[in-house]
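subagent[fold] <- orchestrator: predict structure for attached chain, return C-alpha cells only, no commentary.
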Amino acid sequence: MSGPPASAASTTREDPEALGDTVVEFHFYPVPSTQIAIWLEREDGTFVRDVFVTQATGKLGIGNRPGIWDFLSSWRAPYGPRRSVLPVWAHRRGKTYPQIVWHDDKAEYQDSLGFHERTSSAETYYCRPLTPGEHDALLQSDAMTCPSPNAFRTDKGRFAQDGATSVYPPRNDLVEVSDRDHQDTAEYAELNELDAITRATPEGQNPTHTILRLREEELDEALVAFIEINLEADQHGAEWTYAREDHYVDPRLDQYGVVWRGQPSVVYEVAFDPQEPGVVSTRKYAGYGSSDGRDGAVNPPDFSIAESGGSGADRLREFEVDDARVRFAVEVRPATEDDDCSEIDSVPRIAAVEATALSYDQVQLDISLPRTMPGSTYISQLTVHHAPSIDELDDEEMEAAPQDDFSVCAPDSEDCGLVLHADGTVSVVIDELWGDFAYQFAISYADNCANHSSLVHARTTTPRQPFQQIDTFCVVSTAAYESSWHDRVTQLRAFRDQVLERFSVGRGLVRSYYAYGPALAEPLQASPHLRALTRAFLDPVVEATQP
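subagent[fold] -> orchestrator:
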C-alpha cells in the first residue's frame, strides 16, 4: 500500500533530529463536514502522542469558547463550547486548559447569543448566528460566505476567574488583540500547542491519509492507533433525535440557530507493531463517546448507533486496502536501503506563488513547485494558510491561520488530487472567503517522508460582494447598510450600553428592540429607499443621544 497516495494526504511536522526512520500512514474515508482526531496509545492505555485533529477543534476552539455548551448552532456559529465534539481524544490526552468564558460580565447576557458588542472585536472566521432559513439557504448556495462579515464582531472571551478548566484548547488563530478584547486572549496561542498536527477537515469525496514519522523512542513497544469522528446533527432513532427545545434556546433571539445535537462520536482502533512492516486494519467500530462530553469513556457498540447511510459508525466509509474492505487502516514503512526517508530531512523551497481574486469569495493560487525532489521522494500534500489582514503577517502568525489541504498526484498515480503540470506548476482555488477583504496566503508542501517546505507568502484583495446579505439582528445596522453611518451606529450602541442598560425600563426597551428588530429589519434589506427613510427617521434620535 506504500507509494503514491490515492487521495488527499497530510503530514505531521517534527524536528528531523528527533525522528527515527519509520513512517506510518493512517488511512480513512470520512463523510463530509466531520470533526476527527487520530492519536496513539501504548497497549496499557498510556497516551503517546497526537497525530491529527481537524482545525475547528484544534485551531478554532469550538470545544472551549464563551457561551452555553448546548446553544443552538448554525454555519460557523461563534459561541457555545462543543464539549462533546471529540471527548475520548480530549480526555485521554491528559491535558487541560483554562476554561474560556464571556469577557462580557453583564449577568443578564451570560445566556445570550447576542448583546456583547461592548466586549466584541473584529472577527476573522466566525459568522453571526443564522436563522434556520438563512442557514439552509447558505448550505444550498454555491457561495458559502458570512452575511455582512465587515459588520460582525465577536466576544473572544477570557479565562474563567474561578479556575475552571477544559480538556479542549482555546482558539489560536487570533493575530491581533483589540482594546475591546480581554488581555487573556493574547495568551490563547501560547496555550494551544496543536498547530503541528491540525489539518483542514477532509472534503469526504475520496479516501484520505495522514503520514507520521515516528520518534526513536516510540519504536520500542506495540502501539494502538485510535480515530474518533463526529458529525453535527447526525440523528438516529429515538435515543439520538433532538428538537430545538432539547438545546438552550436564547429567549431574546429565539429565531436564530439550528439543531446540532445527534449521535455521539464513534471510535475505531487498530493495534500495530511499529517495527513490523505491513498493513493492519479494521471494519468494526470500538464504541462511542459521551453525548455531553463529561468524560472520555468509550461505550461499547450497541444498536442505538447507526451503521449505514454515512451516519453513526458509517461516518467512516468502507474502502479497499490490499484487497480487503476496511474503515481504518495503519501501514508501517520501516526504513530500507531503497527508502530515501532515512536519508532526507529537508526539501526545496517553493519557487513562486501568484494570487488572483476570481470573485468576492474565491482566490486562485498559481504555485511553482520544485521540478525535482531529493532521491525518489515526491510531493504528497499542499497546505495553504489564509487570513484577512491589512498588516504583513510573519510565518508563525500565518501557521496559526485557517488552512486548506490538498493532495498532489505522485508519479504514475491516476486517482488522486492535484496534478502537477509539466513545468512544475499547480493551481488551487481557495473559497469561503469574504468580499472586500485584503487576504494573505502562506503556502507550503510536504513530501511522502513527512518533510515540510518553508512557507512562501502571497497577497490579494477580494472584490466587494455584489448582493451582500445584510445583518438582520437590528434595524439600525440594516438601515446603515451602504451608507456613511458607521460613527452614528457606534454612537447609538454606546448610548444603549452606557445609558439604557443602567436602569430596568431601559433594559426592557433594549430587549423589546432585539425581539422585534429582525422582523422590522427584513423589509429594509431589499430596499435602499426604505433604508434611507429609516435613517431620516432616526436622525433626531442620533442627535438626541450625542454625548
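orchestrator: received. Logging for downstream: The first strand starts at residue 9 and ends at 11. The CA atoms of residues 264 and 291 lie 5 Å apart.
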